[in-house]
């Protein structure tokens, strides 16, 4: 278990460095996220970020995913860097199989809906039907994945025994202020 924890933290450090570099290049986005609470780091904000990233990453919204994650992280006080990293579940390699699966699932789900179908369809009707099937299928995957991602992250966080470092306020040095064991919840 210790090996897994160390591997998890090592990969996390590399991603955090890339995210910090991106945020340094975009100071307006950083200021907006900080004011909205989207850069706060606690286990629940991170879990909301994972959930948001899975939801947005598993929807066919290529091109506007980052904007959707910024808005979602501000609305739900989710950790934006966590959402950004997790949204790469949909990438150029996985995009085609995901969208094909979304379409097939959406067509299956639409077969259960009482929607009348016209006997003669134009090309526009066929495109609209395929688009709706893909959207319905993606929601059928994204919503459960977001819920499982939220609770799965919290379970994994607690299972691995991860704890965030306790930040000392200004004027709290050695021997001053509460000790680390006093400031943890449940102590």
From the structure above, extract its key features.
187 residues; mainly alpha; 8 helices; 0% strand
Low-confidence stretches: 173-187
How many alpha or pi helices?
8
User: What is Rg?
Assistant: 21 Å
> Strand share of the residues?
under 5%
Largest sheet: none
Multimer state: single chain
What is the chain-wise order of helices and strands? HHHHHHHH
User: Which range best describes the helical content: under 10%, 10-25%, 25-40%, 40-55%, 55-70% or over 70%?
Assistant: 55-70%
**Total tally of structural domains:** 1
Terminal CA distance:
25 Å
Mean pLDDT: 81
Coarse shape:
elongated
Judged by helices, strands and strand pairing, the structural class is mainly alpha
Number of strands: 0
What do you see in this structure?
- The chain has 187 residues and is mainly alpha-helical.
- It has one domain (2-162).
- It has helices at 2-25, 27-36, 43-57, 65-76, 80-86, 95-111, 123-159, 180-183.
- Helix 3 (43-57) packs antiparallel against helix 4, helix 3 (43-57) runs antiparallel to helix 7 and helix 6 crosses helix 7 (123-159).
- It starts with a helix and ends with a helix.
- The relative contact order is 0.12.
- The model is unreliable at 173-187 (pLDDT under 50).
Summarize the structure.
The protein is mainly alpha-helical and 187 residues long. The chain is built from eight helices and no strands.
């Amino acid at each position: 278990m210790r090996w897994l924890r160390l591997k998890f933290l090592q990969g996390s450090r590399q991603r955090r460095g890339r995210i910090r570099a991106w945020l340094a290049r975009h100071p307006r986005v950083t200021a907006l996220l900080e004011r909205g609470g989207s850069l706060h780091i606690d286990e629940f904000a991170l879990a909301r970020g994972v959930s948001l990233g899975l939801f947005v990453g598993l929807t066919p919204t290529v091109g506007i995913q980052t904007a959707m994650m910024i808005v979602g992280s501000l609305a739900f006080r989710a950790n934006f860097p966590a959402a950004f990293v997790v949204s790469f579940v949909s990438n150029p390699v996985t995009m085609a199989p995901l969208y094909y699966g979304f379409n097939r699932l959406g067509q299956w789900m639409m077969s259960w809906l009482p929607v009348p179908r016209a006997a003669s369809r134009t090309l526009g009707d066929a495109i609209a039907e395929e688009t709706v099937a893909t959207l319905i299928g993606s929601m059928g995957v994204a919503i459960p994945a977001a819920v499982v991602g939220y609770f799965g992250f919290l379970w994994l966080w607690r299972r691995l025994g991860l704890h965030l470092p306790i930040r000392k306020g200004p004027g709290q040095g050695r021997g001053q202020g509460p000790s680390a064991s006093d400031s943890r919840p449940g102590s």
